[in-house]
Write a structure and sequence with these properties.
Strand content: under 5%
Distance between the termini: 20 Å
Shape: elongated
Number of strands: 0
Order of helices and strands: HHHHH
Length: 148
C-alpha cells in the first residue's frame, strides 16, 4: 500500500511540476494539515480516548516536521539547478522535489482525515473507503511491528 502512495505522489508531483503549480501544492498541504488538526481535535473530544496532551504535542511536532520536509523539497528544487548552473550544467526542466513531497504529505493527511471522520461518525464515510483504510492501517501496523 505504501508503494501506491509513493507512486501517486510521484505522478501528481510530476504533473504539478510540468504545470508549475508550486503555490497550489503548498496550499493543498497547508489546508490538509489544518483540516487534519481540526478533525483530530474533534475526534479527541467525541471519542472515548479523550484529550491527551502527550499525543497532541507529538502530533504538533509531526506537523512541523511535515512543513520542514516541504521546505527542504523547495530548497532542493532551487539549490540543485543553481549549483549545477555554477558548474556550467543546465537542466531543461524544473525539479519536482517540492511537489512530490507535497503530494505525499497531502495524501497521508487525507488518509488521517478520513480515519478521524470515521471515528467521529462512521456513517460519514462510504463503506469501501473505510475498508481500504482498515486494510492500509493493518498493513502499516504490520510493517511497524516487523521493524521493532
Amino acid at each position: 500500500m505504501d508503494w501506491i502512495k509513493i507512486l501517486l505522489s510521484a505522478v501528481a508531483g510530476a504533473i504539478a511540476t510540468f504545470f508549475h503549480q508550486y503555490g497550489l501544492i503548498i496550499s493543498i498541504v497547508i489546508i490538509s494539515i489544518a483540516i487534519d488538526c481540526i478533525t483530530g481535535l474533534v475526534k479527541a473530544k467525541v471519542s472515548t480516548e479523550g484529550w491527551d496532551s502527550k499525543k497532541a504535542t507529538k502530533g504538533f511536532w509531526k506537523k512541523i516536521a511535515l512543513l520542514v520536509a516541504l521546505a527542504f523539497g523547495m530548497l532542493l528544487d532551487f539549490f540543485i539547478p543553481t549549483a549545477l548552473t555554477e558548474i556550467g550544467v543546465e537542466i531543461p526542466f524544473h525539479l519536482p522535489f517540492t511537489l512530490i513531497i507535497g503530494c505525499y504529505i497531502a495524501l497521508n493527511e487525507c488518509i488521517s482525515i478520513c480515519e478521524n471522520l470515521y471515528i467521529i461518525n462512521p456513517e460519514i464515510m462510504p463503506k469501501w473507503i473505510v475498508s481500504l483504510l482498515k486494510i492500509a492501517k493493518d498493513d502499516i501496523e504490520k510493517i511497524d511491528d516487523n521493524k521493532k
